[in-house]
Amino acid sequence: MRKEVQMSIKMEPELRDQFVAVAASVHRPAAQIVRELMRLYIAQQQQPNQATRAAMEELEQGKGMRFASADELFKDLEI
What we know:
Number of strands: 0
Shape: elongated
Number of helices: 4
Strand content: under 5%
Protein name: Plasmid-related protein
Number of domains: 1
Organism: Methylobacter tundripaludum (strain ATCC BAA-1195 / DSM 17260 / SV96)
Radius of gyration: 21 Å
């Protein structure tokens, strides 16, 4: 059995009112939409972005830059 917990989110009253109104207009609970948005956000963060995918493809083709350590990479990126 899955346990559910509550979560509080601070936001502008106007944003909340608009969101609840739009959710009601499509006959869906606002909480259900928030859960779906959270799942989508998590999935997007777990997938490499376009630049990362391009760099990975270059490395697979023997192109691109390789670094001996994360420190060298960060130095190259000026981070």
